[in-house]
Amino acid sequence: MKGRYCILEQIRAGGEGTLYLARDLELGCLWAVKEIPVSHKKEAKLLRLLEHPYMPRMIDYIEKEDYCYLVMEFIQGKSLEEWIKEGRHFSEEELLSFGIMIAQVLGYLHSRKPPVYYGDLKPGNLMLTENGKLYLVDFGSAVQSYSRQQKECWGTMGYASPEQMKGQICEKSDIFTMGKTLQALLTANLAKYIMYDPLFLWFLFRCCRKKEIYRYKNMQEVEKVLKRIQKKKGKGRYAMAVAGITVLGLVAFGILLTGESKIPEFRERLTQVTDVYYQIEFQNETRNKRTEAVKKVRDQLQEMLTLYTKKDEQEHVLQMLRANEELFELLESEKGQEGGGK
Where is the Protein kinase domain (predicted)? Predict the structure, then answer.
């Protein structure tokens, strides 16, 4: 092509086009060449405006009859989907690292003017190199617009957000697909995460809420939460107490088994009451302010006992109250230790 690029082999073919490996006859290096119908060349127009460490660079563009060719940086590695099919299990550290990298590249896209919404995040569109670096590939479904409403809003069933399936997309749609993607990577180790890292499960739950208002606000917040989980992982009795409340909350919402609660109103209220525990502000507050927050949660849970009278609702609230009381006693014991040290 162009008297410069010699096609060596086909790497893969899919719904978004065919990918080839090519040699640059002038420079002697290897490039990836993506062939797509010329009617889909908006991907090329978009990629030439973007540059990020976790995205392959586009270095040339060629049109020939009914097709166009995007010459891009060749990423040596496998997609996360390929790794899953081969039976690889990712460690907790790897998943947190993946999440942070995804949040950074999506945050970059959302900060463009107008913002770019990726729209089709899934394991198959994330390439992992041998040195552990993640690349976001395939921008065929990306949308650049200030408007939520789109004439065409593509995505993958099982990953796309509810609003995306209705032809609307925003930055919280990408947060939803990010949560679904990370869920797909931990499925085989779900039991381990329930026991040892429930805060990460809570993070995924927040990402994947059907109603946008209950998801994280933006990718900057997502990145901060992931880094906090990474930093606080396995830190003593306090972390275990908060983790215990997290597990009970997840069970109450039914997501460990079904992914959805059969009592939407109860679920939403319980989220509002206990959400304080998963905020960065709570984790960084003084002991006195955390104690006041725990007391407030206790009062709200006690109020819920009078409002929700079904047996399963009452059981969940009582479990949360017991866990909340354990956290309160822990904070009080810290107060006693501080007093004894004076």
Answer: 5-328
Give the pLDDT confidence of 264-307 residue by residue, as tens digits: 477 778 777 877 766 656 666 788 888 888 899 899 989 888 88
State phi, psi for 184 to the nearest 5 degrees: -65, -30
Q: Which of 221, 223, 218, 216 is nearest to 110 (CA)?
A: 218
- Give yes or no for a contact between 24 and 1, defined as CB atoms under 8 angstroms apart: no
Q: Max alpha carbon distance in the chain (Å)?
A: 82
Six-digit token pair at 225?
């939460």
Q: Which residues contact 3 (CB under 8 A, 6 or more apart)?
A: 25
Q: What is the pTM of this model?
A: 0.72
Q: What would the CATH number be for the domain defined by 5-74?
A: 3.30.200.20
Tokens 């990629």 — which residue? 47
Q: What's the confidence (pLDDT) of residue 114? A: 92
Mention the CATH class of domain 76-189+217-230.
Answer: mainly alpha
Measured N-to-C along each axis, helices 92-110 and 171-186 cross at an angle, to the nearest 10 degrees, of 160
Closest CA to 121 of 200, 180, 170: 180
Residues 321, 67: Cα–Cα separation, whole Å: 62
